[in-house]
């Protein structure tokens, strides 16, 4: 078919990081690209109800509470309790800035954004809101995911929330139960506890965030408990009762937890149900997710899928890279140097957690002879100066080649600090000596790498 048969070379569904990455990569490569978005503004769940609002709210809560807990303010007799509305105000401004900046990317690159729900009519045609028809040579599905809603939980009840609706919370509760202790659950547990709210964190598994290094998981559990979060492992929901004065969570173990509100943070479903996939012969799995190959192609080679709609790792960071990779493949290029599988974790609890590469558990299972170098933040001058002494950095390295195999960090700015380790792991000089032979600024948190590397070297014999 000729170019005239198609309105676009690529049509992207969704304007979150996955869709944006694909659209920008493809248009810069010279393709005619169009985009559909059903929400009233671009930016995706990432900008409006996921990453950006939750991180902005976390920042506001942490900085406000740090000021209010400061002994100088206490001495002055300043006691204040900001309302949810006040805490949210900054978030709205940041969302506004993100939307207008991202809109300018599409405008500058002449990528039209078509407002409405996109739905496949046939293999090369989509409809917008069941009306306008658009034909494209290829597609990227970047429709994201939403919180999973079991049918027996009444999400219309004013005291029962999911991770999308919790951001609209009008009044500060005095207690909350969070059901589900994945990344979203532990981040909100940390945030609400910082506000002085009583928190029950109910985990369906035997430990928190099992994909992390064991020592980091232990540290997270210790600090959450130390801050007053009540964690219950190995529990599962029997039923949830919403009342006028609170919510009761009945667990299969027979326990009952009553709090002012409940946040359901257990599972997500890919946004595929209204996409007309049956008209193109694609079938999502039971979680609404699409299967893709290493090029992000679905079973239909001209239809790609990226981001949360394909499941793990369900991170904005990864969605953007996946979108760019799909864009490159559509342009007929290899994604060459894009490190699709080199994805750091960043978990914005208090203390913050971040890691890259292998864990001790994985290295032990693979019989890799590794050694560990550690640096405790409490020994770093910078940490002492800024009062951020809780935390540590841990480098795992091969004891023969000194290759850095993994870096695990918790404490202030962990999600920034980790990138030094990630860069070294990916550079030509990917071994521990980089850290022992390099002069670091002093005093800095980055100095933790030198301290940890020397500590590790000292363990070798
Ligand atoms: C509370 C919370 C905190 C998070 N924190 C982080 C974090 O700190 N770091 C991180 O990396 N990730 C974080 N994430 C995950 C991150 O938000 C997602 O991984 C990311 O948004 C996925 O991007 P996406 O492009 O796949 O989808 P989304 O950002 O969800 O965008 C999908 C877009 O598609 C649109 N759409 C859907 N169907 C259609 C259709 N049929 N037609 C037209 N438009 C459609 C939607 O309206 C939406 O705008 C967090 C998530 C949550 C819920």
UniProtKB/TrEMBL annotation:
Keywords, sorted A to Z: Cytoplasm, FAD, Flavoprotein, NAD, NADP, Nucleotide-binding, Oxidoreductase
InterPro entries noted in UniProt: Class-I_Pyr_Nuc-Dis_Oxidored, FAD/NAD-bd_sf, FAD/NAD-binding_dom, FAD/NAD-linked_Rdtase_dimer_sf, Pyr_nuc-diS_OxRdtase, Pyr_nucl-diS_OxRdtase_dimer
Cofactor: FAD
Keyword Flavoprotein applies: yes
Top enzyme category: oxidoreductase
Superkingdom classification of source: Bacteria
Domain Pyridine nucleotide-disulphide oxidoreductase dimerisation: 343-452
Subcellular localization: Cytoplasm
Protein name per Swiss-Prot or TrEMBL: Soluble pyridine nucleotide transhydrogenase
Residues involved in FAD binding: 55, 308
Similarity field: Belongs to the class-I pyridine nucleotide-disulfide oxidoreductase family.
A biological process from GO: 2-oxoglutarate metabolic process
Cofactor binding notes: Binds 1 FAD per subunit.
Function statement: Conversion of NADPH, generated by peripheral catabolic pathways, to NADH, which can enter the respiratory chain for energy generation.
Keyword NADP: yes
Signal peptide residues on this chain, from the entry's feature table: none
EC number: 1.6.1.1
Listed GO MF terms: dihydrolipoyl dehydrogenase (NADH) activity; flavin adenine dinucleotide binding; NAD(P)+ transhydrogenase (Si-specific) activity
SUPFAM superfamilies recorded: FAD/NAD(P)-binding domain, FAD/NAD-linked reductases, dimerisation (C-terminal) domain
Entry binding sites for NAD(+): 180-187, 267
Any one of the GO CC terms: cytosol
FAD/NAD(P)-binding domain sequence ranges: 8-323
